[in-house]
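From the shared-data thread, chain only:
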Amino acid sequence: MSQYDVVVIGSGPGGYVAAIHASQSGFKTAIVERDETERLGGTCLLRGCIPTKAMLNTADLYSKMQHSEDFGILVENPSIDMKKMQKYKGKMVKKNAGGVKFLMKKNKIDVLLGHGRIEGKGKISVESKDGKKTTVQTKHCILATGSACRDLPFIDMDHKLVVNSDDILDFEIVPEHLIVLGAGAVGSEFASVFLRYGSKVTLVELMDRVLPIEDAEVSAEVEKVFKRQGMDVLTSSKITDVKNDGKKVTCVIETEKDGKSASTTVEGSHLLVAVGRMAVTQDVGLDKTKIKTNDRGLVSVNEYCQTDEDWVYAIGDILETPWLAHVASKEGILAVDHIAGKNPRPINYELVPNCTYCTPEVASVGLTEEKAKERGYEVKTGVFPFSANGKASILGQNEGFVKLVAEAKYDQLLGMHVVGPKATELITEGTVAMELESTVDEILHTIHPHPTLSEAVGEAAHAVTGHTLHI
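Structure, as tokens:
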């Protein structure tokens, strides 16, 4: 029976990063992956972050080509070739999956293919699809089993016309009319992709605004731009019935506005159900431990991601922490450092950057204006629009703004919110600033190069003082 110091179950961005860090920390390490095609990388790499961003990149390029004449380039009749797009997307996934496989080899990590389960203290079984089971011993285990698409009980998923976010990745056609249920990050991104591919898109959201976890001003701007782009956006709305005749999907949508309800029927060629995900904690051997889970199947851990079984750690989408690839990776590193006795600093989850890659892009870190006020802060804010930024105008992407939320008494930066071009890149300035407990004055005195999109951050700092320079 093989003996390891650390066995990681799951090879997503949390799992494979944890395995690499464990090996580099001097631990004999193995990683278990139930996808027996040897494609490592988990949901993020195979069915999430990487393929969706490839599809978004195609949408961005196509959109630019449709307006290329504005930039002095003549492109006649550009069109989307979905089969070629799929080939490009597949190439990106294959390249990244191959990269993870290479890293396992480089760091001398044993890859065990099959379904991993805890079989008792220090024992992990790995069962292949043909039923062959092997058992290994380990001093420590890190659970990184991730999440899967969540369905709704009243919607029959045929995975052809009524689909989830895994299914839609493999579309080789542009839907005539795509109805998207859920305006969180996943739903908004796919709505943005297929709108620009040429689909008619109807976006349905139960909450009163799209991207409901974002600052209210950001959500309002995104909805305004989506509508300007031609998207139908229905907030405070829910789908109560779905009929699928094999040729089209008919949805009954109920909307609540100002205390009044109205019902409409919308016919689409396809329905995407993007209402969230569920933790994969079933059938991983938790029943053979004293590890606790809540009613959503999420694992209880301490500040170092350690479970009630002191030799088992859990990270990523099976925790009640932000379900983001970069969070899972950080949790993996934290868990390994705790195993190694390095007394690591716990993660400050309030400084996790959120990124949504629709058009316009959205990114944020820290508190929204509303949350800051709820916590009793005396708040001051500053907003600077990209319409007044030279680089944004050059790019032809001048929608959106940068918003800073600060504490009035001590001038501490509490939150940064960006909607507009390269928002997901710009947010890092706010993340670093908040990690260093910077004041708005310190951002104001930081020189931002010209002409760049980052100047909007500096200008937003000026706006907090009430003295913007370029508006």
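Residues 162-273 form a domain with the FAD/NAD(P)-binding domain fold (CATH 3.50.50.60).
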